[in-house]
Amino acid sequence: MDAFVNAVDGSAVNQWVTGSAWLWPLLEILHFIGLSLLLGTMLVVDLRMAGFFRRINIIATHKMLPFAFIGFGINLVTGTLFLLGDPARYTANIGFRWKMVLVLVSGLNALWFWFKINPVMQGWDPFGDTPASAKFVAWLSLGCWFGVMLLGRLIPYIGTG
Amino acid sequence: MFEWLEGTPVAIWVGESLWGYPIVLGLHVIGLAIVVGIFVMRDLRLLGLFDGISYESLDSLRNLAWSGFVINAISGCCLFTSQATTFASSTPFLLKISMIFLAAICEAVIQHKSHDGAGAWDDAGAVAGSVRALAMLSITLWTGAIISGRLIAYL
Q1: B136 reaches A (C-beta below 8 A)
Q2: I need a surface site. Which of A17, A149, B49, B124 has the fewest CB within 10 A?
Q3: Is the pLDDT of residue A161 over 70?
Q4: Taking the CA atoms of chain A, what radius of gyration do you get in angstroms?
């Protein structure tokens, strides 16, 4: 971690992010817009996959997923810039570390969905109940993303542990 | 009046206890994701995306979206009391509240119009121009509320 902080501090991108008074708030605004897109998509897709709102055609919900990728992409870029702008503060922060753990779990969960659930979805009743494995993936996804959001919001208030 | 608000027990808990402010702020971001996320997804459906998901089925998340709205009205009031005099004179805050007020009216109008027309909104191209304009307005207002809300801390 120290090597990372030393390598980043004073680098061109580090100075760019912290050099302008307007860039940080602009990145924060984009980060909030990204989270709205990601969480909005996941709420619809995961709640349906958990078995709720069965009037929604579950097989068509994949058409919303591009917005989850757009939201995640925005937040990956803006989040990386926050990290490069203030590396010592983030790497030492317990809230940030747990947030990254939950992002990783979300990513593995998404891979599980993609390789194990998505291929068999076509055989489901579009307006029916979902298998237990799909419900598990859906609740894990919602739990992780809401946890990510909450921990992110609490970073300024959680110390170095 | 704003000074009196800052002296209420809620304001003191939010402003001065160790976890009061972060807990309420955490609730505020959860509510934000629910209300903005769901309404914007519905707006995108009205604008013609998500072919295969009917408007009426997506509209069944309406109550969840409004529950996010209520979470944020309550948590927002708690946050407001803690620094009432500062917020009441903050331009981005007043802009944010105005946009949320207009967005709520916008959602109500879309829902009112859907009572008559939603059955037809599921056919391609059947969503009236006025409803699509309201969907655009809804997205714009929620985005504006996020932008001005974030700027409260900076201006």
Answers
A1: no
A2: B124
A3: no
A4: 18
